[in-house]
């Protein structure tokens, strides 16, 4: 009898809770509709004032504030995912946002772009990283997303070179955790004769491939997405790629998380044509060229040390038209609207042959999975 009563009570509670959720859903829709109306009005004001629709600093501020209200059943990560899409929808009623990324579809660059702009943006795959820069510089796309460095393999040197060649601004950054899987139409690993992937993905999984796929022919292609598309046409082939690629090309994940190091993260940059406002937690990137003299680099960086400005990253790249001369790329903590950093950069400018400000932008948060 007690068992019957307990079952009846559970059934009633189940129905009651479902009713509450239905009511909450109606309230959420009403609030979202009102939020979209307000966002549209804000977009009209932005147009009158000549402001950019994408405001990464404001969005970071919102996410930071909301994430602080996390609870046992609503984690910071869940809040981040939900409100990233809410803000993406809000941008869509202000002005269509076009975003170029290194394609093809399902690439890690596309995943990074979605992490930054949400699914309501219009995404345009580009064949090369330079095509992304060109699309933004010429106004074909409002924003672009490019990879700049990986925690295991280092810098994407082609991206650094293009900042010297093209007139764009860094507007935001995002860190994406890279998870590699073996994707195939085959039923098990023993059937695989060929393995396709991007050179960097292969390098990041080299030990696993050697141990688990000895004798398999490894073929390098231009992207993990291209590798997945090739694997989809040959049951003897496999690709090293992402879960998204597996879904897109209807492939089985024969082995998951095969990267040799678990903490494999790639940093992506959003590029545009305008500066981002301060967010309170920012980076500033510059590139500069020095005369070929002893102590030139030390002298150029001295204004930063004197003002206690932290250098997050520094890297040199050869200038292709000048033998044995180098460009330096530097990421600094802080925003250039801060007088301390602004004065330091101005003093650096006086000590360099040339210096270009690549932009101040909100520092990225924890990696997206």
Strand content: 15-25%
Query: Number of folding domains?
Result: 3
CATH top level of the largest domain is Alpha Beta
Shape: globular
**Regions with little confidence, pLDDT below 50 for 5+ residues:** none
Question: Can you tag this structure with a few keywords?
Answer:
about 375 residues, alpha/beta, Chorismate Mutase Domain, subunit A, D-Maltodextrin-Binding Protein, domain 2, Alpha-Beta Plaits, 6-stranded mixed beta sheet, 5-stranded mixed beta sheet, 12 helices, about 45% helix, globular
Structural commentary:
It is a single chain. This protein is of the alpha/beta class and 369 residues long. It has three domains: 93 residues, Chorismate Mutase Domain, subunit A; 75 residues, Periplasmic binding protein-like II (D-Maltodextrin-Binding Protein, domain 2); 95 residues, Alpha-Beta Plaits, CATH 3.30.70.260. It is 43% helix and 25% strand.
Topology:
Layout: H1 2-49, H2 56-67, H3 76-94, E1 98-102, H4 108-117, E2 122-126, H5 129-137, E3 143-150, E4 154-155, H6 157-165, E5 169-177, E6 181-184, E7 194-197, H7 199-204, H8 206-212, E8 217-220, H9 224-231, E9 237-241, H10 243-248, E10 252-255, E11 265-272, E12 282-289, H11 296-306, E13 311-318, E14 326-333, H12 339-351, E15 354-362
Parallel strand pairs: 1-2, 1-3, 7-8, 7-9
Antiparallel strand pairs: 3-4, 3-11, 5-11, 6-9, 6-10, 12-14, 12-15, 13-14
Helix pairs in contact: 1-3, 2-3, 11-12
